Amino acid sequence: MNDQTPKTAPRISKGAQPSFFEQPATEALYGMFVVMLEELCVLRDRLDTYERLGEQGIAITPATVEAYEPDDSVEQAREQLRHGTINRAMRPVKALQEAAVKRAQSQYEQTARSIAEQEI
Amino acid sequence: MPRGQEHPMLPATNHDEYAQTRFLLTFKNYIQNELDPLDKELVEKVAKPAYEQQTGGPAQTSKDVRKLMETEPFHQFWLSSLRHQQDLMWDNVADSVDRQLDKLQEKFHRTETPLGSLRLDPDMEIPSYISAFDNHRMPGSYYTELADDDLRAGALFDGAAALYHVNRNGGTMNDARGWTMIDHVETRFPDLGAPRRILDMGCCVGHSTLTYCEKWPDAEVYGIDIGAPLLRYAHARTEALGKAVHYSQQNAESTDFDDGFFDLIVSTAAIHETNRPATQRIFAECHRLLRPGGVMAHLEVPVRYADLGVWEQIRADWESQVNNEPYIAGMARLDLTAMAQKSGFRDVAAGYHWQVPGFIPGKSGFETEGGPNGTLKIGSWYMVSAVR
Fold this sequence. Notes:
heterodimer; A: mainly alpha; 2 domains; elongated; B: alpha/beta; Rossmann fold; 13 helices; 9 strands; 45% helix; 14% strand
């Protein structure tokens, strides 16, 4: 502890931050997207807690929500919902991979065809 | 993580914080189960053929295909997904820790009659391989202190650990690596007997350390690390769990213990956060600290580039290049056996030890081969062990 000790905790890791896309803004946007996906899933879990409490006739208050402990079947149901949400959100990303593989495949087939038809 | 299994020191999670961990768990598993295979397919069907067309020979390393892969939008999202889930994890846990830090600090101050001990060194110089980066993107790393007796870094680490390991390192106790170490030592060195003095190098918050207390209850167990906040938390956690460990803030390259003081020296996932010269010095220090016939065993991530396919190397590269673990790739290419022999050790072996408790059915024990067809040997840990 000395005068150089930071007074507030750092919230991002130090040094240069990675950027994988052509535009750094895309990296930031995707980061924001992942946060929003998390927020949505958290909200969905909270809604599910409300419904489960309602099923049991328990009044929904901050305290009853905090006290609620999901059992294995509830965890599994929530997991399925979450997986579905993430899967739908990532569909456009998966489509990028599909397009790249198709493109490479058709280039290969085109090359193979032109070799087959070359005059020897 | 299962909310009912927290140990007395672990930062508690409220409803929404717990939901955050469940999201990240699902997202991490989604990346591994559904995006990894697509990225690998991209390597096999796009990058490798393109490389072969350009050069006339097959791609054999990640370096061969990296530039091309990094122009592929799917791969960009894959790299970025891994990065953002990591950063979001630390961010979530930091919020959780900060709202209850006062309570955690209080628990540290309440250990008045400790079973173990804590010895800190305020003049300790943090080695450059730790200070240069925030390892695995943890903001502030292991050593940042914001107040007197600060243990925040330890709480942050422990709060995230189970999620980091997708619950596979022994749930919220995160001790499976310790049990794996014990299994390995018993497998390779059945004549060692019950060690009287054990040193855990780079013990961090004591996740593995406490398994040695449990396995060998008559042993004196010591743990060293370079981060004071980690060690304060480790001490409080250990005391809360009713175990005795003597923690001290030291660099494993050069400690103040006497020659031949220990029967067993271990480390779990610590070596990959040093560098090559430091690793050699750590081996030399282990040799000095062990009694003749004593055992050194270091557990590491199960990554050896010689055993990996091209895509698997790309996955391993991410740990070095993005996850701020710069030495992982280097260490995964080193001949650790030769380095141990250079420091005077005999009966040196390096290979993969299946985790205890494991999660790959039917797999146990120590093997030297890598995963089939260059795949990552998930469910195992890479070990190098030897006799003094």
